[in-house]
Amino acid sequence: KRIGVPVEGRVGETLVAATPRTVKQLLELGYQVVVEAGAGEGAQFSDEAYQAAGATIGTRPQAWAADLVLRVNEPTAEEIGLLSDGAVLVTRMDPRPDLIEALQARRTTAFCLEAIPRISRAQAMDVLSTMSNISGYRGVIEGAEAYGGMFGGQVTAAGKTAPATVFVIGAGVAGLAAIGTAGSLGAQVRAYDVRPEAREQVHSMGAIFVTGEETPAAAAAGAGDGYAKELSDDEAARTARIYAAECAKADVVLTTALVRGKAPRTITKEMVAGMRPGSVIVDLAAVGGGNCELTVPDQTIVTDNGVTIVGSTDQPSRMPAHTSQLYGTNIVNLLKLMTPAKDGVLVLDHDDVIQRAVTVTHEGTVFWPPPPVQVS
Ligand code: NAD
After folding, report:
1. pTM listed for this prediction
2. ipTM
3. Catalytic annotation on 129?
4. 80 lines ligand 1 (CB under 6 A)
5. C-alpha closest to that of 173 among 203, 151, 193
6. Which end of the chain is flanked by fewer CB atoms within 10 Å, N or C?
7. Can you give the residue ranges of the Alanine dehydrogenase/pyridine nucleotide transhydrogenase NAD(H)-binding domain (predicted)?
8. Quick check: CB of 222 below 6 Å from ligand 1?
9. Catalytic residue (one of 51, 199, 227, 314)
10. Atom of ligand 1 nearest to the CA of 257
11. What is the rounded distance in angstroms from the CA atom of residue 180 to the CA atom of residue 175?
């Protein structure tokens, strides 16, 4: 069967769903690959590099007419119209009823990459972890740029400067990447997460887990599916005290808190008012509305008291070569599971929890929503 890799239509998108390296892996699974001319341009992969890897370069209709189409972003209605009848679509998407209906009408087999379950076996396919990891890294770079000082303490002939203090809220995949990156630049890193098990991971990254005046409640661990749950009023008041105190002494705050993709409020405008002039907030939850009350998604603002709030939502697209490589590898790993004979023939096993979890439609039959998956 033939795999198509179209240009991502979205304005400003730099990512691509396959790279020359992942093309080679797709060929090893028995597929042929057609890449739309220019698809890798934003990520610095030339058509020649794809050809050298064994792909053919084609037109937009050729890429969309393939048996399997790989994408980064959800297709538009017009793009769905370009799919062949009964094609397989592998992409990030929000499976809304209107999208499901459009896919069903084309008898598409559609896989939603955000629905990869949080089980160990699925880690190598987990695009959310890929994106979060890169966002955490890139968020620190953006915070460091907006901050008017150096992260590492300096001892020079002209005197000394103190290291920056970085406070990270939420120590999931993005938060841990931010902790590692800020620490490697020499900052003193402090962090907090509502999941008590995050404390050990924060410590293992060499950062301080802040606890406030009491010991952390063992309450927010969630329902066993790998997601945090919302805080009770008492817990929220306690974490608010921690956040206010930590933000007031931080040079850069990175906030990464999410509960099932939604951004809880972690930093209020009063907390921002208590921050030092020149300090920075990078709101990595801006895409879900923001953790900070004053965040404007996709904008950088400076408050009256001189705090810069970075609300960019496209961190992964600002590191396009590596993001595309890791994202493309996530897709290869999913297709490995679905191509057991490595003969370029996709065989779907609905008894497999991963395959079941990602299937939105199969040959026109709706499989969404999937049954819940417990973390193993
Ligand atoms: P996430 O993106 O859903 O949330 C980010 C972090 O914010 C989480 O750690 C969460 O506990 C925290 N948070 C939520 N509300 C908060 C609040 N009010 N204040 C402070 N922190 C708050 O989570 P994630 O980064 O995707 O992952 C969370 C955990 O799941 C990690 O331990 C990760 O290793 C694990 N995980 C496992 C797999 C897998 O096994 N395949 C995949 C992804 C994640």
Report:
1. 0.94
2. 0.96
3. yes
4. no
5. 193
6. C
7. 144-311
8. no
9. 227
10. 7
11. 9
